[in-house]
Amino acid sequence: MKEIDMCACSFCGRPQKAAKKLIASPNGDSFICDDCIRICADIIKEENMKLKVFKDLVIPSPKEIKKSLDGYVIGQEQAKKVLSVAVFNHYKRINYNYHNKINGKKNNVEQNKNALELEKSNILMIGPTGSGKTLLVKTLAKILDVPFAIADATTLTEAGYVGEDVENVLLKLIQNADYDIEKAQRGIIYIDEIDKLARKSENRSLTRDVGGEGVQQALLKIIESTIASVPPQGGRKHPQQEMLQIDTTNILFICGGAFVGLDKIINKRKLSPVSIGFNATVNRKDEKPKVDFTNDVQPDDLVKYGLIPEFVGRLPIVTGLDDLDEKALQKILVEPKNSLIKQYKQMFKIDGLEIEFDDEAVAYVSKQAIELKTGARGIRTIMENKMLELMFDLPDAQIYKKIIITKDFFEKGEKPILIKKEIEAEAV
Fold first, then answer.
1. Model-level pTM?
2. What is the reported pLDDT for 271?
3. How far apart are CA 253 and CA 140, in angstroms?
4. Burial of 320: CB neighbours in 10 Å, binned 0-12, 13-18, 19+
5. Among 5, 208, 230, 324, which is 20 to 30 Å from 343 by CA?
């Protein structure tokens, strides 16, 4: 065995004389200095901190999640309940599986193998445009304080074609998690316009379906559970590019789409077969029963619509969103924490002005939004167009203190009522 004074740290090469302490291995062939021990301890501590953050993920109860959603989303009560329970169960599952994994390591491998593992349940939201699908998911991510990314299914194509690879969806999540892979691996991804990936017919075409069935097949891997290789700068993969590795096992995927025409497929199934005779049920042609997508949709309906069976199987939780009526749109304008009217009030307040929208003005905007048939999106379109001139030619805050927006401002293009600081209100 070497003399201890002639030995050096096997990690950093520091000789015994330069180190405070040099500890030998049991067989005396290798050594480690006190500085390297400290560095190793810091590395272990950092890794344990990451595990602690993952383990101690705070999960609000379904009731608490729904209550928070109520502050931002008007109506859609059933959808909010379904999402609240689904998201709660998803993160409860992550914590449960994590504890099983840790306990298995502490005890024995056999116990870990036999432990029950809870599987992930991704979500499909069906509802018309402007009904609040994206807002619901954004708000959920905000409530849970987890990374969130949105992808548009219409921009995705199969690998090798012009467009985005499905892995770029994961890159958006990683970027929003500040490249913290551990954090991104428990985030939420929302894929919008998923219905646009449906095959146009049930017959398989001989031509390539670049943006449809092929993308569904590509999404299958990342939606279920895989270790995906993601290009850090986006774009197409190439051999020289170093990839980021991300495990999608605990990423919650929520897909949404309008699914125009799905109600016809469901009604056709529900109303057939047609019986013959005196006891036959007669269905009037003009009758169109309202479809409850949350309860009425069956996997086969989605397959007939054009989604492949494997993809449908990855989205076991289905919830529907209703069309927004005029009354709901009025509430959306006024009540949510981030309602459009509250935003306008804040913007004018910054300029030293108070602005008020009377009830008739709110009702008129809601009615016009219904005619646009774009749901809550129609509200913003109308408000932005009508408020443009007023915001361009802003009243002088030194003279005026309040602006009142009336129905005639929106309907006839009349100027708003301006109230001076010293004098009574006057129309301008």
1. 0.75
2. 78
3. 13
4. buried
5. 324
